[in-house]
Every structure is written in C-alpha cells, then in structure tokens.
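Local shape tokens:
==================
===
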Amino acid sequence: MEEKLLEIKYSMTLDEISQGFMLFWKKYQLKRTVIFTIVYAVALVLGVDIMIRNSSNFYGYVIAGLAAGMIFYSWYKPFQIRRKMLESISALAEETYITEIYPSELRVTTCIIEDEPVSENVEENAENVENTDNIEKSDNVEENTDIVVSNGEERQEVSVYRFGTDLIDAQETEEMFLVYVNKRLIYIYPKRCLSDDEQTKLREILKDKAIL
C-alpha cells in the first residue's frame, strides 16, 4: 500500500462553500457566459434596429425581448444555482471531512452525523443539561419545557480520485485551497482548518502533481 503523504481533517461554512462555488464558476463558466452575452447582445441590437425601422414589425420585438431575457438569465443563473445549493446544504446535518493524500490518489471521507432527536423533560433531567452538546429549546420556555437531545450516529462516505485523470486543476486563495475534479466538482480546504505545516505540505503536493 502507498505511503500516506498528508491527512487533513476539516469542515466548511456556508460562506466558504459560496465563495468556492463562485471561484469555480469564474474559472470554468465565466468565459462561456461572456461569449453568449456578446451573441445575445448582437441579437438585441438587431431586434432594436428592426423596431426603429418599422415599429409595427412584430419580429423586432420578439428578437429584442428574447435576447434581453437570455442576457439576464445567463448572469442570473449562477446566483440562482448558488442560492438553491446553499439552501439545500443548510438543511443537511453538519459534516466533517477527512482527506488522505497518497502519491497516486486523493481519498475524501465524509463524516455525516444523522440526528435522531430524543425528547426529555427538563425538570427531571436538569442535572444532565450542562453536559448536553446539542439542545434545541422550544420558543416558550416554561418550567416543564421539553428539550431535544441529539442522539445521532456517524455515517462515513469515501470518494477516491486519481491524480492525472480525475484531479485536473487546483487553486489557492488567501482563505482556501480548491481542488477541481473533472470540471464538475470541487473540494474546498479552508486554511482556517489547516496548520502552517499542512498548508505548506498541501501546496507542495499540488505543485508536484502539476495541478497548482
């Protein structure tokens, strides 16, 4: 078995995921969006010209309207996708990730906490409240208010990606490292979760693999 080069344990906030998505969009989608915008802009000018020359020409209004709508949608779409993605992620249980890097592959383990709420009585279990990590209280706090105690179990999912085939690019910013998978998926490594030595080692590995 290959020797492990680096192991990183980390988590991500919604802001970090949002920032990572926008960096991904700018890297792989922005150029395409600009090109389509130019094409739609030409169509818009053509439609307006037809309208000016003949205000009763129905096709001029159709062309201009469709072109303007496509320009708006092209730029609005990534923000809509980001909003829906963040709404979906925020509804999930908190996740912790472990990345193990080997000479030929990168292995990502996702640790998902699946909560199973258990109702308990505050008055009868007051002595245990101080030791409870995850408690949700109802809005109306009464003497015998029920509480919900997280009694979740951890589930792990492992994904493996190979250098040179799956992992095609990487990027470093002031706040994070990003590793791109086949232009469809990114992994975000917030620097706040990494020690200086881990950052240095990760940077060296990505440069050695010619993806950073």
